[in-house]
């Protein structure tokens, strides 16, 4: 706890820290009353208060501070600064505070000599000490070295670099010609690369790494300068109070008249590119030397700018000489000056709109024609060509026209101005590259062994508006910071190792994630920027959005509105991004990122420069390098160029030994003797020096050589202690003072303290004499005790030795015992283990037998196999038991044999088991299958039966309707017939009468004829040879008419019809036939038969069939008439009922169309045989009609075999009536279904019926039957 009297440092916004005392303790903060009454009281949080040492501190190395914190550190710097001790160390890092004034003798040649070859720390801190350390490390470690000088603008980097180079070049003897050249490089570089800014009158606007190369003897052999990121925007515009590069003013102020005329030079305010500030730097003397006509109005009013080391007039002459020393001729120098002047004149070319131009182009303004002339003269280009190249752009057409056609696109005013500025930037920056090249040429080296490189590059930067330049430089600083962290940490840890401190590895926050954010290959900010540039229409807002999108959740990247600065918070999300750098968050405005990332000239300007007549300029624009040739997609951006350069630099730094110089700017006014604490503190933080200090806090930051510590206190020590050697003294002191072992560590040469512990030690040492006496007493006691302890330890060691010998003896015995046991086990282990293993097989066989018992087949085989194995096991065990020296291999082979047999048996068993299982399974499956099959069949049959039943039912119903319909028709027909019959009857009766009369006459005539014949024979007289013919009574209109003869068939027919008493029917039929198409009455029987067999005419065929059956009928009628009465029944071709029905049946004529729709119908009629015995009387008659005619018929009698008849074979015995005639269709219950008929037919031995329907091509089977009959 801090006490009231304790001095502390409290945070102050201006001073950094001020000293005071704690006067109040709050819950979260303390109240501090400053010692200096001019500061008010304040309350500060714990973190902003640090303890303070008593009295002023002044240490060369901040690590020597007893209290290690940023406040004491800052105080140490400040104290020393006011004592003109501008250099301080933090470990090996040199802190250099810019004095802004010349400190006497500090860089004098004598000082150089003084520092030459002296160890770091031997002399007060100095930039020379660092340079010397680098040389010595190079020599000792045979390793190139780098010195990294960093700090913000105006902190003194460039000056420090100059002193370093001076030391490097002068340290051995005096500088030779090469060294002089290396030193001469500086004024040249500064003339072209430095400018006045608000922060530094001589601000370097580029970074550089100057290498001084040495040979094996460490003699300087040459040098090489690499440069980075020249600020190009400054060439065309500068902020207020800032100037363009020095060389422009130097030329205007110092060029002799002759040169001025050649270059057409005026005064600074004549040039637009010098508008930021037009004053020269001059001292009283040179101010006089510059004629008034060369000074701007502003200069004349305000007088010259003043700086101790800058003088434009003087420096022009210095530059001219330095260029000469670098080996440039007057002509070459003139070439350089011409280009510098050309840039100035180029800047004065202005543009104006072309009146009445519709294409929006512009032209060089009237007023700047003169500048155009001068510029083209200086550049060595044709004035018209320059004019055209400035106001238009060349484009090669892609589509339309001939590919590659060149088109001149006119530029708008602002585009032309941009092109002009781009040209100026390109000329100047390439000139700068050339100058650096020239310097390098002048300090060449064939071979070098090592080099010392000094890096002077801008430190971390942040402004209100930060653009691409800040982004690049801060990226560079991130890389350097990472390098610094890695390096310092490594060195520190190496020291701990060297001193044997055994300190655990110290880790620290890494800034690798920021570096990744910027340079990652896939989506780093540089990559995103390059990708944006390759788009057809790149836009800053799209680029910014991409950055935010790619790194949305990255801690190190934020939106501008997350900035703590109000000015940044006004930026919209797509206008910028915030990067949390190691030194603090910086908000970047992305508006010009894309433009600044691309330094390409447009093609026409580039081409013009390549072909100019100015030899220097032409070499600056070698052909083939143009971006317009490489194309937009292949351009190398400024960012990626810088990234590559930096990568190479880092590689070099990593391979070298490193030394750091951190430059601190004490105030922003660039004045001496003013130390702004907070400004310095901020720089210390940014440079990472405070982090190193923090790092030290975890380690042992305070360290003193034993000898130094001893010397420090020698004067206050009593004689008893003074006589001790330094190391023993230190040991005795630390042990006896009861300092905690955690707080210090003894190294090999030094004692290291934890932060603040050194001061504790110091306080004790310097306490009052009484206390000192007590300490001395304690030390003496400690000394006696430690010596006694040492001798006691010696005795103990001897005893321990003896005990150890006894113990070892015991151990040897034990070792022997164990070895013997081991050997015996080794020999017999395979035997007993083998027996065990083999016996195990026997156990396994039990299971095998158990399983085998479950087998239905092959059980005995397995059991037999098991018994064999038992035998083998017994034999094997017996062999092992009887052979003590049996080898492992033999046992194993026996085991393997038994095991193989066992395995074979098991395989057998398994196969059998599997087979049995398979058989069982198959049987089970088969049964299931059968059951399923049966079930399915039953179901199908049932379904079939039901379907059939339903179908039968439907057909029966249909049949019944048909029958009823036919019946009704018949009744109607009968009625009609009856009436017709009555009429006919009457007529017939009359005819019959006539006929009888006629017959009587005929009889008379016949008799007359016979008589006449008899008479003639008697008298030989002649008589008509034919008897009187019987006239056809039916057709004869008049009985007494013509003597028409009737044929035999007609006779038959007549007789039959009479017999059948059906003359009316026949007549009707004949009438119908007469109406038919074909009159077949005259056809012969054989002709009918042929027609049935061969005709394709369906109608004819049917007509033939009808006629055929009609004739058959007549034949049967005739036959019936001539039959023996006794056998009548047997010869019936259909049941009597059918025949009778036919008799009753009035003749009907089948309409022709019925033929086509002819169908098969089936009937069943019971009949009775009148003359059969009772039990056999009954029978069944089956008929199958194919259309109108019978196809099959069958009689079933109880007493005799069934009679099966088929049309075509048995026609003569079959029913000759047409279906209509039979009247079967009208008989209730007579019709049956096809399958009913077929079932009965087949049951009685009938053959399956072939459909005999009317076939257009093919003989009717009836025809065949007819043939047979004949
Ligand atoms: N060691 C020094 N002694 C005297 N003046 C110095 C010293 N270092 C820097 N200065 C002054 O500070 C100015 C800026 O220093 P410079 O090295 O150019 O800064 P930086 O390169 O860091 O921007 C110099 O012009 C000089 O006036
Ligand atoms: Mg500088």
From TrEMBL:
UniProt cross-references to Gene3D superfamilies, sorted A to Z: 1.10.10.820, 1.20.58.530, 3.30.70.1590, 6.10.220.10, Kinesin motor domain, Myosin S1 fragment, N-terminal, Myosin VI head, motor domain, U50 subdomain
Domain Myosin motor: 57-766
Myosin N-terminal SH3-like domain sequence ranges: 3-54
GO annotation, biological process: actin filament organization; actin filament-based movement
Localization, UniProt: Cytoplasm
Span list, region Actin-binding: 646-668
Primary site of residence: cytoplasm
InterPro entries: Kinesin_motor_dom_sf, MYO6_lever, Myosin-VI_CBD, Myosin_head_motor_dom-like, Myosin_S1_N, MYSc_Myo6, P-loop_NTPase, SH3_Myosin
CDD domains associated with the record: CBD_MYO6-like (cd21759), MYSc_Myo6 (cd01382), MyUb_Myo6 (cd21958), UDM1_RNF168_RNF169-like (cd22249)
Gene Ontology CC, one term: endocytic vesicle
Source superkingdom: Eukaryota
The entry's keywords: Actin-binding, ATP-binding, Calmodulin-binding, Cytoplasm, Motor protein, Myosin, Nucleotide-binding, Phosphoprotein
Binding site for ATP: 151-158
Matches recorded under Pfam families: MYO6_lever, Myosin-VI_CBD, Myosin_head
GO molecular function, one term: actin filament binding
Region of interest (Disordered), residue spans: 935-978, 1248-1270
UniProt family annotation: Belongs to the TRAFAC class myosin-kinesin ATPase superfamily. Myosin family.
Protein name according to UniProt: Myosin heavy chain 95F
Source organism: Drosophila madeirensis (Fruit fly)
């Amino acid at each position: 706890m801090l006490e009231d009297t304790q001095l502390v440092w409290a945070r102050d916004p201006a001073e950094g820290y001020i000293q005071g005392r704690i006067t109040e303790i709050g819950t979260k903060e303390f109240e501090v009353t400053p010692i200096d009454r001019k500061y008010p009281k304040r309350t500060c949080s714990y973190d902003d208060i640090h303890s303070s040492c008593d009295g002023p501190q002044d240490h060369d190395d901040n690590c020597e501070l007893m209290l290690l914190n940023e406040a004491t550190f800052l105080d140490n710097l400040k104290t020393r600064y006011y004592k003109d001790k501008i250099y301080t160390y933090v470990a090996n890092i040199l802190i250099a505070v810019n004095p802004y004034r010349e400190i006497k003798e500090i860089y004098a040649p004598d000082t150089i000599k003084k520092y030459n070859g002296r160890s770091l720390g031997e002399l007060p801190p100095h930039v020379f000490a660092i340079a010397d350390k680098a040389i010595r490390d190079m020599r000792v470690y045979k390793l190139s070295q780098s010195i990294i000088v960093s700090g913000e603008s105006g902190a003194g980097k460039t000056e420090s670099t100059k002193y370093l180079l001076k030391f490097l070049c002068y340290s051995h003897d005096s500088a030779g010609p090469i060294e002089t050249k290396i030193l001469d490089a500086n004024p040249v570089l500064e003339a072209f690369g430095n400018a006045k800014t608000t922060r530094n009158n001589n601000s370097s606007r580029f970074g550089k790494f100057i290498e001084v190369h040495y040979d094996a003897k460490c003699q300087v052999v040459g040098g090489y300068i690499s440069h980075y990121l020249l600020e190009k925007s400054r060439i065309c515009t500068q902020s207020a109070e800032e100037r363009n590069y020095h060389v422009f003013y130097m030329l205007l102020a110092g060029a002799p008249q002759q040169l001025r005329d050649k270059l057409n030079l005026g005064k600074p305010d004549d040039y637009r590119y010098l508008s930021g500030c037009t004053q020269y730097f001059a001292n009283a003397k040179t101010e006089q030397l510059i004629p008034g006509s060369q000074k701007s109005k502003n200069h004349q009013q305000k007088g010259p700018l003043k700086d101790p080391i800058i003088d434009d007039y003087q420096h022009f002459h210095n530059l001219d000489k330095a260029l000469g020393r670098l080996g440039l001729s007057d002509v070459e120098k003139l070439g350089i000056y011409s280009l510098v002047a050309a840039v100035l004149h180029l800047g004065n070319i202005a543009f104006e709109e072309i009146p009445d131009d519709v294409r929006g182009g512009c032209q060089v303004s009237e007023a700047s024609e003169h500048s155009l002339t001068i510029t083209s003269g200086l550049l060595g280009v044709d004035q018209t060509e320059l004019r055209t190249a400035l106001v238009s752009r060349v484009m090669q057409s892609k589509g339309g026209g001939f590919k590659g056609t060149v088109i001149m696109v006119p530029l708008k005013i602002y585009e032309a101005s941009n092109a002009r500025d781009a040209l100026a930037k390109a000329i100047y920056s390439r000139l700068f590259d050339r100058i650096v090249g020239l310097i390098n040429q002048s300090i060449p080296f064939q071979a070098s062994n090592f080099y010392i490189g000094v890096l002077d590059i801008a430190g971390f930067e942040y402004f209100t508006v930060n653009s691409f330049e800040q982004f690049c430089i801060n990226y560079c600083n991130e890389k350097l910071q990472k390098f610094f962290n890695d390096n310092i940490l490594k060195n520190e840890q190496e020291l701990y190792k060297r001193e044997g401190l055994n300190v655990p590895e110290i880790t620290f926050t890494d800034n690798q994630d920021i570096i990744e954010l910027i340079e990652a290959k896939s989506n780093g900010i540089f990559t995103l920027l390059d990708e944006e540039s390759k788009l057809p229409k790149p836009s800053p807002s799209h680029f910014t959005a991409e950055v935010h999108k790619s790194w949305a959740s990255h801690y190190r990247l934020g939106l501008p509105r997350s900035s703590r600065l109000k000015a940044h918070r006004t930026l919209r999300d797509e206008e910028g991004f915030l990067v949390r750098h190691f030194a603090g968050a910086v908000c970047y405005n992305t508006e010009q990122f894309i433009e600044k990332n691309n330094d390409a000239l447009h093609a026409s300007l580039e081409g013009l420069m390549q072909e100019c007549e100015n030899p220097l300029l032409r070499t600056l624009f070698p052909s083939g390098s143009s971006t317009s040739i490489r194309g937009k997609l292949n351009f190398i951006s400024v960012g990626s160029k810088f990234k590559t350069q930096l990568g190479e630099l880092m590689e070099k730094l990593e391979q070298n030994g490193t030394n750091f110089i951190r430059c601190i700017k004490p105030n922003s006014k660039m004045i001496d003797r003013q130390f702004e604490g907070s400004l310095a503190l901020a720089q210390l933080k940014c440079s990472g020096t405070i982090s190193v200090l923090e790092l030290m806090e975890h380690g042992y930051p305070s360290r003193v050589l034993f000898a130094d510590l001893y010397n420090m206190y020698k004067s206050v020590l009593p004689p008893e202690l003074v006589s001790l050697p330094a190391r023993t003294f230190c040991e005795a002191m630390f042990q006896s003072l009861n300092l905690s072992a955690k707080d210090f560590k003894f190294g090999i040469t030094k004692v290291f303290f934890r932060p603040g512990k050194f001061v504790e030690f110091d306080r004790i040492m310097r306490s009052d004499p009484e206390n000192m006496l007590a300490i001395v007493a304690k030390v003496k006691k400690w000394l006696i005790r430690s010596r006694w302890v040492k001798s006691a330890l010696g005795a103990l060691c001897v005893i321990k030795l003896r005990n150890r010998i006894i113990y070892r003896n015991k151990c040897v015995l034990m070792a022997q015992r164990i070895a013997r046991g081991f050997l015996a086990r080794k020999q017999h282990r395979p035997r007993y283990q083998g027996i065990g293993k083999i016996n195990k097989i026997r156990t396994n066989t039990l299971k095998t037998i158990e399983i085998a018992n479950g087998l239905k087949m092959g059980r005995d085989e397995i059991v037999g196999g098991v018994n064999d194995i038992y035998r083998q096991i017994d034999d094997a065990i017996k062999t092992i038991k009887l052979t003590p020296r049996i080898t492992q291999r033999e046992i194993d082979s026996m085991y393997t044999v038994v095991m193989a047999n066992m395995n074979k048996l098991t395989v057998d068993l398994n196969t059998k088991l599997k087979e049995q299982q398979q058989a069982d399974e198959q049987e089970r499956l088969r049964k299931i299958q059968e059951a399923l099959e049966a079930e399915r069949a039953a179901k199908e049959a049932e379904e079939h039966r039901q379907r059939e039943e339903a179908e039968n039912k439907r057909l029966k119903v249909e049949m019944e309707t048909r029958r009823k319909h036919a019946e009704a028709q018949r009744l109607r027909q009968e009625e009609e017939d009856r009436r017709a019959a009555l009429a006919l009857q009457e007529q017939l009766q009359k005819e019959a009468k006539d006929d009888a009369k006629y017959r009587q006459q005929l009889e008379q005539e016949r008799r007359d004829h016979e008589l006449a014949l008899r008479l003639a024979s008697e008298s030989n007289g002649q008589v008509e040879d034919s008897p009187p013919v019987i006239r056809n009574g039916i057709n004869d209109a008049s009985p007494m008419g013509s003597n028409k003869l009737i044929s035999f068939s007609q006779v038959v027919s007549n007789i039959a019809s009479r017999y059948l008493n059906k003359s009316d029917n026949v007549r009707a039929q004949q009438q119908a036939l007469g109406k038919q198409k074909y009159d077949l009455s005259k056809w012969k029987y054989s002709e009918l038969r042929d027609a049935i067999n061969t005709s394709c005419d369906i109608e004819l065929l049917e007509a033939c069939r009808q006629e055929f059956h009609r004739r058959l009928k007549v034949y049967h009628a005739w036959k019936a008439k001539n039959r023996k009465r006794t056998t009548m029944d047997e010869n019936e071709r259909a049941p009597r009922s059918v025949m009778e029905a036919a008799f009753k049946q009035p003749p009907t004529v089948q309409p022709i169309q019925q033929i086509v729709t002819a169908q098969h119908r089936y009937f069943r009629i019971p009949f009775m045989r009148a003359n059969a015995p009772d039990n056999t009387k009954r029978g069944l008659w089956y008929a199958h009609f194919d259309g109108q005619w019978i196809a099959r018929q069958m009689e079933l009698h109880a007493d005799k075999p069934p009679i099966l008849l088929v049309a075509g074979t048995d026609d003569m015995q079959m029913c000759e009536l047409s279906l209509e005639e039979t009247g079967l269709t009208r008989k209730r219950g007579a019709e049956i279904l096809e399958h009913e008929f077929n079932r009965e037919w087949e049951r009685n031995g009938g053959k399956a019926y072939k459909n005999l329907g009317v076939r257009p091509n093919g003989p009717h089977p009836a025809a065949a039957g007819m043939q047979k009959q004949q």
